[in-house]
């Protein structure tokens, strides 16, 4: 072929149908549908996306232009980079100031910490601390129930510093999110928001550049909600709070300027990126419906890496999870980002883990160069299609919530909690059956982990009251909020915060307690035939057992029933799993199980599902067939319970 012929040659344009034909051939009889994936959002992900999947009219959209799905700045992070807003852990104001000084000198770009009663123990020190960072860095604070006294302290700090420069960022609260955690508002609904509006109006005069209204979807995410539910809740809460401000005399422009949205970012990378892009689209359309000007329809986004996805055991894997989630958040176009420390679930965060969390964002900025490109996901056939589908489904759910009276009424009726529980149960079932993997937890567990069981602080009304006790009468002495909380009776069932790994962690700690009592948490593996015939199932069972903190004690290659009995008699285990291939099962049959259970009162399991004689295996003493679809939590919990009963009997 000459060079001229080569230049004139072109490739055939491949159609989706051509790909389907090739894919069908490679599947060897399996349906094409087996390549599609259903998500918790009831979205079917295709194995291949094409230009035809782009939403209509998207080619005209640019970053910084309505509907803002591509970001609120035309140049993306090049015009204004996102703020590294990792929350600093502390016990008092002095420690907070010292640790924040370190963080800001090492790359942090926003003042962020958990707002706790401890900071109000010395009001002079608090005001001095707040004054010292004036105007150098924006604030990124979810003030929660302590918003009023904190705003008062900031106003004093602003005056003490001379008032020549303005504080920026947000010191915000979401009363609906707080109510979702404690079962209601502290006072009657209209009365509460009338008072809240007055507090925010005063803050707007004293701190004009500080945003004070938070739309916080993190509690819903950490209760198990999916992306569609989070988006619908965000829009519903935004509409609810905006309307409350308007009802109390605020102007639309002023009210919109005070709102910031806060999301948790989960493990489904592209879904989370699309979630943030869809959030901006939805809020732009919502603000437009209120009559807002284009510039006022922009959504300011704060985000944090998910607590729901993190684990206590094998904690260093949390670094990878947080990195993945932070990456998704940045691609989604956030303005503030908190990256959780890898040891935060265990309650042992320190300067080292905080540095790693901070450096995760610095790597994304300075080494991955993510701040150099405006909307890196823009134009992706997959992400754009997912953004559109998420927005459509979220809008439908928002309308359903609105039909039920809005976000607060949906919580009061318990309907919203029920929707989230259903999603959470689906997630938990897939983790329990190991259909979804959590590395180091339900697969590839490391039994050498030496981790102490943390004391988990539950969110309770008494704790809220104690928090208020610490501050009421100091900076905000005129408030009656504390007394209202004491008299308040929850009007609905609160959300239940959780982490997916908790059931496995409970079993791991239970196994560790048994070891401390002198009981070895072991299960014997009766390995039939030569290594290559039993290894696959023995490895599978070993991995399953380790997820519950149970050690596997393997026999050698067993070829006879008598050899199996000899191994059992020499083992400290009182529960056993028979492991072998189908030929071994057919050869030994239920006779092996009958012989074992005849001589000993042991619990006996079988690895895999036998091709034949299943009823005979069950009759002969097999409790359960352990396979890839087994509920690991149920099986392992039963094993540990049996060990605990045995330990108590000895005692």
Automatic annotation (TrEMBL):
One of the record's GO cellular component terms: cytoplasm
Q: Where is the Methylmalonyl-CoA mutase alpha/beta chain catalytic domain?
A: 39-113, 136-449
Share an example GO biological-process annotation for this protein: propionate metabolic process, methylmalonyl pathway
GO MF terms here are: cobalamin binding; metal ion binding; methylmalonyl-CoA mutase activity
Highest taxon, organism lineage:
Bacteria
Q: Does the keyword Isomerase apply?
A: yes
Q: Which Pfam families match?
A: MM_CoA_mutase (PF01642)
Arranged from A to Z, the UniProt key words for this protein are: Cobalamin, Cobalt, Isomerase
Q: Which residues form a coiled coil?
A: none
Which Enzyme Commission number(s) are on file for it?
Answer: 5.4.99.2
Report the cofactors. adenosylcob(III)alamin
What family is this protein classified in?
Belongs to the methylmalonyl-CoA mutase family.
Q: What is this protein called?
A: Methylmalonyl-CoA mutase
Name the species this protein comes from. Mesobacillus selenatarsenatis (strain DSM 18680 / JCM 14380 / FERM P-15431 / SF-1)
Q: What is the lineage of its organism?
A: Bacteria, Bacillati, Bacillota, Bacilli, Bacillales
